[in-house]
Amino acid sequence: MKKLLILVIEGCALEYISLENTPNIYRIARDGFCKCVKAAIPTIYNVNHTTILSGKFPCEHSVIGDAFYHPETEELELLKNSDHQVEETVMDFMRKKGAATALLSVRSEVLENLGRNIDFGITVEKPQEILLRYLDMPAPPPVESLQAATWILDACYRLLKKNTMDVVYCATNDAMMRQYAPSSREAIRQMKKIDEWLGKIYDLDHDRELYITGGYGMNSKPHLINLQKILEKNGFDVFCHSPSHEIAADPKAKVSEQIASNQSGMRFLYLKGDQKQKKDELVQFLESVLYVDIVSPKEEASKRYNLPMDLIGDYLVFAAEGYTFADFDGETLEDESVRSNGSLHERAIPLIAVNAAELAEKYRYSRDIVKIIMESGDRS
After folding, report:
1. Residue 46: partners with Cβ closer than 8 Å, 6 or more residues away
2. 104 and 155 in contact (C-beta within 8 Å)?
3. Which of 76, 135, 235, 324 could form a disulfide with 221, with the two C-beta atoms 3.0–4.6 Å apart?
4. What are the residue boundaries of the structural domains of the chain, listed by start?
5. Mean pLDDT across the stretch 3-26?
6. Where does 219-340 sit in CATH, by number?
7. In angstroms, rounded to a whole number, what is the distance separating the alpha carbons of residues 23 and 329?
8. Model's pTM, two decimal places?
């Protein structure tokens, strides 16, 4: 059976990769190919891991964020607390063929939501002591630390060296990308460390089918906009639903450390009451402000961004470059240290592949990695 490894370097925009700082990525690309592909919309964690692992767009797997909003009851249902199940992942698909499967990630959601049919699963967030002993690993660092990314890559290396496994999915965190621009000393140092582990992992088996991608990108967002408060102030009866529901840190910490509660580069808008009859006024207002990139009605958004029309509200609003939507005291906030994702500007990500199932031109989206594998069927 042809062995498979998918490595997701969270938040890895194209600018983080360079010949000088990531020579192993370039070496791997020379043995296969490197290109730019598109992440799923919204460009956030759960949406894109589900997309990659299932090979399907959100319109098929129905994960459009970290929570579902029910307009009838005005209640939020967290994805981790819901009964939502993705029909089939590459782990399910390969397990049916007798493959030994493994899933490693920094955060626990991927394993908890999508790790049904696996033989080995470990996370930085909730590691099992027996698995740490199996890999002879030290206790993991904090989930949001820079060390978490290299720890999980070290675990991947040790697992493949000890037990080659047929199918492995390994995901880092985006802590470095949230804090540091690609040209910064800290980012360069971290990417060099990640690159070293990628080289070690690749050298264990040059015949393995290998894909390295970014999940989603990351950009500077110094201008924070509280869209809910602004719309309310201007007389619009709308609920702004964020696809990202982060738990805010200490309120005394700076915004970049909090990552502002429910912060992301897009919002699903649900019209309430009489607002449904005044929707043209809302659209005109949103199209007139500098911080909005695109306002898209649900019918158009569903087709253009491959989203389930019944789960995305009445409109999608994407933040303009340099802006992000967040919940905080006030309407606007400036913080030069804020870096985040969620908008269309974080959609471009790298794909480096060796022994790929298809030619480079067949890969346009991150979901194509698994889509092509599952459609081909033959893994001999």
Report:
1. 63, 65, 66, 79, 109, 113
2. yes
3. 324
4. 4-217+347-376, 219-340
5. 97
6. 3.30.1360.110
7. 45
8. 0.94
